[in-house]
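step=predict obj=Secreted protein n=112
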Amino acid sequence: MWDRQSHRLNMKLGIILASLSFASAVQACNVYQHCHCYNSDGVPNDSATADVCKDFGELRDKTDGDRTYKECYFYRFNIFGSQGIGNCQMRKSCKSKGATGDDSSCRKKILW
């Protein structure tokens, strides 16, 4: 009797943990106002950023410390809500344009 109850409890706990893990993974993609591409050495890839940005955003200069690099800016607010740059799509687009980094870098998260 006890083994059956503990088995059910373990299964419920497993389902809850899996659900929380899935929810966390889904929330990893967000929308931002500014993004840029990186190479694997940690240096921003201006060429890839410009290629990704040219169809929808505005390419701007960003200075961080002693480094100036290009970043893409896109933000629009209307009756349907806010629009910006999706970081997960940005990462894929950066790779398709030749950036070698594992991720893109985004800032100014848009809170719906």
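step=describe
The chain has one domain: 29-109.
step=end
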